[in-house]
Write a structure and sequence with these properties.
single chain, alpha/beta, 2-enoyl-CoA Hydratase, Chain A, domain 1, Lyase 2-enoyl-coa Hydratase, Chain  A, domain 2, two-stranded parallel ribbon, 8 strands, about 15% strand, Delta(3,5)-Delta(2,4)-dienoyl-CoA isomerase, mitochondrial, fatty acid metabolism, ClpP/crotonase-like_dom_sf
Length: about 280
């Protein structure tokens, strides 16, 4: 493993060719997210985005749980720093800059052009849901408990949950209830609103399935897969006409790849014709 992929709060490995496993690595703190973890996520996913060997990523939590959300100590220190600022306007700017830094860290996950599969177990609370909102595919073990905790903390979720999830949740009635109440919910409701796609009996089965899916994706044309993700994310954030214009421009260059010729030549019909 490259020394550039070593982080204080993340554990990165390459269990299969072109597949990278990223583990939140604060198990004694139940993978609560502090400033260092946010910064490490940004650096890690920006580096994996450019890493030639990386074609698919599995994101999980090391230890008993995925993540219990933002670290209370980090919040306390941030609040204390804000209190020390006397001027109201400067206090607002300080808070705005702090929120923006966290947003940029999780947006690095969302902007990563390599498919990301979240493998969720134990607890996925608050900022943990913000993080999985930035992933492409979400698998879970059956013991997972979820909660959109921000309302109980006196604020609106500001780093992913309310900004990305409304684009693809399938049941907005239940989703809004979960947001407004902060109540805990299980994998059945998580599937019902489209937050997760598959549930597995054990964490071991969960990781095996996530790895198998990542391995399958990694065997496909990286040009096609990355192009698909770029266009899916663009479509999520733009109107239909913009989407057609973007993909037209994108594919005018990407159609030059040799992957298309190799894929066509590998079809059974052409293989049979080549024998004639």
């Amino acid at each position: 493993m490259s020394s550039s992929l070593v982080y204080e709060t993340l554990k990165v490995s390459q269990p299969k060719p072109h597949v990278f496993l990223v583990e939140l690595n604060r198990p004694k703190k139940l993978n609560a997210m502090n400033e260092q973890l946010f910064n490490d996520l940004k650096t890690c996913f920006e580096q994996l985005n450019k890493h030639d060997e990386c074609r698919a990523i599995v994101l999980t939590g090391n230890g008993r749980t995925f993540s219990t959300g933002i670290d209370i100590m980090y919040l306390s220190n941030a609040a204390a720093a804000s209190v020390e600022i006397d001027d109201v306007a400067r206090k607002v700017l300080h808070n705005r800059n702090m929120i923006q830094r966290i947003q940029e860290c999780l947006r690095a996950v969302d902007r990563c052009e390599k498919p990301i599969i979240a493998a969720i177990h134990g607890f996925c609370l608050g900022a943990g849901i913000d993080l999985i909102a930035c992933c492409d595919i979400r698998y879970s073990s059956s013991d997972t408990t979820f909660s959109i905790k921000e309302v109980d903390m006196g604020l609106a979720a500001d780093v992913g949950t309310l900004q990305i999830l409304p684009k693809f949740v399938t049941n907005h009635n239940i989703f809004r209830e979960l947001v407004y109440t902060s109540r805990k919910f299980d994998t059945n409701e998580a599937q019902q609103i489209g937050l997760i796609s598959r549930v597995f009996d054990t964490r071991e089965a969960l990781l095996d399935a996530a790895m198998s899916l990542a391995h399958l994706i990694a065997q496909k044309s990286s040009i096609a897969v990355q192009g698909s993700k770029v266009n899916l994310n663009y479509a999520r954030d733009h109107n239909v006409d913009d989407n057609f214009t973007f993909v037209r421009t994108w594919n005018s260059g990407m159609l030059l790849t040799e992957d298309i010729v190799n894929s066509i030549m590998a079809t059974p019909v052409l293989k049979e014709k080549s024998k004639l």
